[in-house]
Design a protein that fits this description.
The complex is a heterodimer.
Chain A (H helix, E strand, L loop, with lengths): L10 H11 L6 H43 L4 H29 L3 H14 L4 H21 L1
Helix pairs in contact in A: 1-2, 4-5
Chain B lengths: L1 H13 L8 H11 L5 H11 L15 H36 L7 H32 L4 H12 L4 H27 L1
Classes of the chains: A mainly alpha, B mainly alpha.
Chain lengths: 146, 187
Amino acid sequence: MSLSSGAAGRPSDITEALAYTKPLPGSTVVQVATFLGWRLGSWPGAIVATAAFLVPALALMTVAAAAVLALPDAPWVRGALMGLQIAVVGLLAAALWHLTRSEAGSALLLTVLLAAFAAGLFVNAALVVAAAGAIGVLIDRVKRDA
Amino acid sequence: MLELVARFLVIGALAFGGGRAALPLVERLAVADTGWLTPAQFATGVGLSCATPGSCATPGPVLILAAFIGYHVAAVPGAVAATAAVFTIPVVLAGFTAQVVAKLKDTRWFQAFGQFAAAAAVGLLGVTLLALARPVVDVHWALLLGSAVVFAAELRGVNPIILIVAAVLLGAAWPLIDDALAGLYIL
């Protein structure tokens, strides 16, 4: 099922899928696969496309998790895992940098970001995200009415 | 198992801003709230999720981390259940979006919700960063210099997988390097 052929196979479909799934919660790349699958074959198409996209990653991750748990408690293993942790901290800092630039485009959103950081130290993370969304809706209402 | 599925369903519903922005939700859930994983195990999972298809450089399916956590909680059934749960709501929404072509997207309130929720998720990523840096600092604060090098290299466009592999190899070789340095010191 190649995208270069068939009724749903225009490059613009991918652009459209990206634009429409980006505001939704969840991994955008996976949702693009779902969106295109739906175009090609309704709900069965969506489910097959999503599963085909996820199963290899799921299998790899399961094997990796099993392998990590089976590692012996040796100095080189502890060293390797510490090296991994150090790298992940650096990569996460980089992700934070990129995401702050892309998601906090205004002073208002930057304030939300910083407030969420402060709140996240004490309050459940899911609540913080949901509350921030609700505040966004309220502010939007007030702006529209004004 | 039920708790695993329920919690990952919620994460899927709240993952505004893509998979990477959902990382703090996953970290709070698996480490801080339930203690299913130690911070070190979680960091291992994040590192591995960068090496599976999708990668962590793009805002890819970091949510596949659900498989790693699910496996720790309940072996293979746990991995499958957690992954299915975390993708259920996003995938159903994406399907409906294709169906009605973005009725939801054009709804003002939904856009405002998503924008603020995404900004909040990025702020929470700062909390996750602190949680993951802590065990490193507990060993020795100077190890964060290594993180700083990785940070700078990533911003300059070095592939994250290369950075992870280099850090793991250096870490694995560290006992040998340490011995060699100690030998030099004695001389």
